[in-house]
Amino acid sequence: MSAAEQRAFAHADAHADDHLRRLCDQLRQPTVSATGDGLRAAAGRLREWLQRLGFDARLLGEGSHPLVAGARRTVPGAPTVLLYGHYDVQPPGERALWSGAPFEPRIADGRVYARGAADNKGQHVAQLLALETVLACEGELPCNVVVVLDGEEEIGSPHLAATVGRHRELLAADVVVVADGPGHPDGRVRIIAGCRGCLSFELSVTTARRDLHSGNWGGVAPNAAWELVRALAALRGADGALTVPGLEPDPAHVGPLRSAARTLPVDLDAVRSDSGIARLDAPAARGFHERLIAWPALSVNVLAAGPCDPAAAGAAIPAHASARCDLRLVPGQEPEQALAALRRRLAEVAPEVTLRPTGGAMAPAASPVDSPLLARLEAAVARGQGAAPLVEPLVGGSLPLATWQRQLGCPAYIVTYADHDCATHAPDENITLDAFRRGIRSGIATLFAFGEAAA
Among 3, 56, 62, 192, which is 20 to 30 Å from 273 by CA? Predict the structure, then answer.
């Protein structure tokens, strides 16, 4: 560790209380992309923050979901690292399930509880504070830096790729570091070289002008709920395998992932206990990590037919039924091709069912795990965390990593600053004070690590 890095670590420790206050200020601002609540005001403040740090900072895109982007290129010959995060959050959901107000940070038991604490404000604020700390100590950054803060990640980043494509010169970088996601249950930070893609869609069917009396019409009128269930059953077999021609994983892409998956640690008893699941989903023969990184997965998120209020449900045949679904894609699969395969399958087995894409689709992505850039990042995170990270080839969730590979031609790696039990997207979302502080230190070490690459 260099003397400059040691100075920055000491400065961050001395300002820990102020850093926590700054995080809480960000958490108090609702920034729900599903509704647009608070996004433009928050984006303006983030742009001002970057401008104070000497960045050429702008709001890109139109409407209430701007992309906050800034560049500081003041170190000739040094590489450029792009730090990506998102300032939008999920809706808080049912308020009664929270221990306090979702947008009023509550500090208890060494954790900060608030919507966005882990996903993603606690993590991208740590990156911004790392920049601020190094500048305060050294007056200059050790490498060139681009910051991109997305206002649409929680709705699939539908405009990110086009916006990045229009501003390649401003955003050009050698490597992208995404601070996002939960750490491993054993306490280690994870560095992840890729992610599955995601295609969100809705299936719907209407069989009559109105709901019909089940006594007068039962056995005569088609039941929308049965028609929808039959369509869903045609997409996945009883053994758990997808039955959609065209969605078979390409062995050339997923073969190495399946091999790597077998080496990743997992405590299945702890997984079952923590989640409350009695067993893993079918097919039973697939390993835990293999399921998450080497196989596509079709999920039914919401299933609806008839009145939503059970008290209003009578002996009726529902005339309309719908299902919100998502399909996670593995490397070698593209959202457009997957959508076409689903349409062909439904046209064959359930032509009366309508498929409508919802939200933005994300392609899967995989960056090299043998890159010198990843080696530098791994060493930096180890210094910041005080322990070696766990390096994984892919994560089961979806992030817009493919955008950076395809628009900027550079690798992208995820670093998880949050805790494994951070309750992302759930009530009482949180981040520990220790994880937040170690995230700042890891951000500092990352800047110096890429600065050393210039030498």
Answer: 192
Average pLDDT over the chain, rounded to whole? 94
Predicted confidence (pLDDT) per residue in 179-203, tens digit: 999 999 999 999 999 999 999 999 9
Strand pairing class (316-317; 212-213):
antiparallel
Q: How far apart are CA 192 and CA 257, in angstroms?
A: 12
Give residue for tokens 């899967």. 364
Size (the chain), residues: 455
Angle at 163 between CA 374 and CA 198, to 5 degrees: 65
Q: What is d(CA 8, CA 384) in angstroms, rounded to the nearest whole number?
A: 11
Cα separation, 394 vs 451, whole angstroms: 26
Residue type, 290: E
Q: Give the alpha-carbon dihedral of 198, 443, 126, 33, to 10 degrees.
A: -20
pLDDT at position 273 is 87
Task: Identify whether the C-beta of residue 412 lies closer than 8 Å to the C-beta of residue 175.
Answer: yes
Cβ–Cβ < 8 Å for 98, 397? no
C-alpha to C-alpha distance for 322 and 312, rounded to whole angstroms? 18
Q: How far is CA 415 from the centre of its chain?
A: 12
Q: What pLDDT is attached to residue 313?
A: 63
Distance separating alpha carbons of residues 101 and 116, to the nearest angstrom: 13
Contact 172, 295 (CB under 8 A): no
Give the residue from 340, 351, 438, 337 showing the smallest Cα distance to 122: 438
Q: Distance (Å, rounded) from C-alpha 80 to C-alpha 94?
A: 42
Burial class of 226 by CB neighbour count within 10 A (0 to 12, 13 to 18, 19+) = middle
